[in-house]
Design a protein that fits this description.
By secondary structure, the protein is mainly α. 76% of the residues lie in helices and 0% in strands. The protein has one domain. The protein has helices at residues 8-25, 28-48, 56-75, 80-97, 100-120, 128-151, 158-180, 188-215, 218-234, 241-258, 264-269, 272-279, 289-317, 323-332. Helix 2 (28-48) runs antiparallel to helix 3 (56-75), helix 2 crosses helix 6 and helix 10 packs across helix 13 (289-317).
């Protein structure tokens, strides 16, 4: 029997599919994205100094909002053109209408998207140096989002802004990780323990100040306040507890687990406790820029020390105590994931 020749519509669809495949394989989209983000970051830095015309800040903020939404949709297997266009339209409407509600909404959404994108942009880490690299990548992405959020010049309540950014970022990360981590049934006993510990640490990090005020003794509170003040005076800043105790360790340990087990994504979800606070860090005008920069850096150092201890304990508990065992375990950590610029789903 002779084969049926394809119709004109089928040939057209096949041609479109081939063009889409060529575009996906081309480095042009990634290069274009990097150029746009770099140009937007330069505009935002000039607006913060301030140097140049007044439109640099809003232009940079709108560009980052659109490019970050596009990248998050592309990374998570969504529709980057649709979501990137919607985010760009929201940013343009905010800048053109000059409405306080839109400015606040755009700032919060930009910070939340930056926090989630920072976590989703990571890749599995076989060794601890690679985990350090992934933490740096996530925090840099969040820092650019922080500049974009204040580029809209919103009128905000600082605590509400920080809580809203963290809450939306955590919600978005959990929804995405539910698919990436094979649902709740993919956690296993160890994963359930890790997620429970992370939830407790998140609640404690958010409530520690109120718990100290209500239940802490006067001497303990005064001692802690004195240490914070000393750190700010002598070191320039005090590490953010939620970043140091939860965010950075969860991100580093989660990337370590992802090279070995899929449930590592559930640990990475708590990495927004590092990226979201960084993305909202510029919202408080009472804090100097030096402290805004130094506080996450100090928290990063403390968090990496904790992550190193956690990873070593995990390796010891799984029977990889000596150096040779750790080297062999690292060489066997070959769980595949798409590259950083490829869709996860």
């Amino acid at each position: 029997m002779s084969r049926r020749s394809p119709t004109r519509a089928e040939r057209r669809v096949a041609g479109v599919e081939r063009r889409v495949a060529r575009i996906a394989a081309s480095p042009l989209p990634v290069v274009t994205w990097l150029v746009l983000v770099a140009a937007a970051t330069a505009c935002l830095v000039c607006a913060m100094l301030p140097v140049g015309p007044a439109w640099l800040g809003p232009a940079g903020a709108v560009t980052v909002t659109g490019t970050y939404a596009w990248a998050l949709a592309a990374r998570t297997g969504g529709r980057p053109v649709v979501f990137g266009t919607l985010a760009l339209a929201l940013g343009l409407a905010t800048v053109l209408t000059d409405q306080q509600v839109l400015e606040t909404g755009a700032a919060v959404l930009t910070a939340a998207v930056a926090g989630v994108l920072g976590v989703m942009s990571t890749v599995p880490a076989k060794g601890f140096p690679a985990a350090v690299r992934e933490c740096l990548v996530a925090l840099v992405i969040a820092a650019v989002g922080a500049m974009a959020a204040v580029g809209y010049e919103p009128t905000i309540d600082v605590l509400r802004f920080e809580y809203a950014g963290l809450g939306l970022a955590l919600l978005g990360a959990v929804v995405l990780v539910f698919r990436l981590g094979a649902g709740l049934h993919g956690l296993g006993r160890r994963g359930l323990i890790v997620v429970a510990v992370g939830a407790v640490l998140l609640a404690a990090s958010l409530l520690y100040a109120e718990l100290l005020r209500r239940y802490g003794s006067t001497g303990l509170v005064d001692s802690l306040v004195a240490r914070v003040q000393w750190s700010r005076q002598e070191l320039g800043a005090f590490p953010r507890p939620i970043i140091a105790v939860l965010g950075v360790p969860a991100l580093a340990y989660g990337c370590h687990m992802r090279a070995r087990r899929r449930q590592g994504w559930w640990v990475c979800a708590f990495g927004v406790a590092a990226t979201a606070p960084v993305a909202t860090s510029l919202g408080n005008p009472a804090v100097e820029l030096r402290e805004v920069v130094l506080s996450p850096l100090y928290a990063l150092v403390v968090g990496l020390v904790l992550a190193f201890v956690i990873i070593r304990l995990d390796l010891a508990l799984t029977g990889n105590r000596g150096r040779r065992s750790r080297v062999a375990e690292q060489a066997a950590a070959v769980r595949p994931e798409p590259r950083r610029t490829a869709p996860l789903l």
